[in-house]
Amino acid sequence: MNTRGRRRKTASPHPTLTFEQLYEGHDKTVRNAERLFGAGTTILKQYPDIALGLYELGQEEIGKSFSFLAAFGYGPSDPQWQDFWQTWRDHRTKAYRAFFYEWFSPTRLTVSEELDGFPRKSSIEREKEASFYIDYLRDTGRFVSPGEQTDALETANRSAILISHVVTASYIKTALDEGDKQWNYQTFSALPALILTTGPRQEAMPAILDRFAARSDRHRLLVDNLRSSLQHGAAWLRDLPASNAASPPEDLPVDSVQQSNAPEKQ
What we know:
Blueprint lengths: L18 H25 L4 H24 L8 H7 L4 H7 L9 E4 L13 H9 L2 E3 L4 E3 L1 H4 L2 H25 L4 H8 L1 H9 L6 H9 L3 H23 L16 E4 L7
Antiparallel strand pairs: 1-4, 2-3
């Protein structure tokens, strides 16, 4: 076929999003993570392997919600839009990005010191694949089902880490939705953007928040509301293991609620 004279199609630039679009995306990713947790919890006893995959999908959605929080402060020509869209379908980055919520609230449920939120398998996306698909093991020559590739500890581990991140994301959203939402989200965005671009250590966050609060009276009010909301979220998690709440499941094998040692910047 003669293609001379035809113009090559060039990749379209990474689209920028308005505040309204970002707010809608952030709201829906947080709520979808809640739905995925609820769906996993509903089928947990009968299909724990599938529940594991749903929990991991929920963790990816929470990771996307963190990307949205940073993007509220991006300008039309900001190069960070490229990262936003490149990571949109990067399952590993999305799943690990969810851990950055622990920079704002390090309280999380843990079910196993062995796993502590990390996958037992070679990667977190491999954990998801094992929960949904039949696989072939070359070393044994066998085909294995999801139920043969996963166990209850893996499912409980992913469930605990997901609900911890969902609670933190939800309570941050509660604080940002109070008052002037557009100013709150666009101002707060400097903090998740800082985490994504420079990777401050988790233990440095209290001092970073103090400096951020000192910028103006409005900044201080925002940080005060944020800290108050996150304290309520941490209290909810601390009460969870002894509660009789229907969701999360009553038999979730939670060993403790602890301060996290979150993964390094992904």
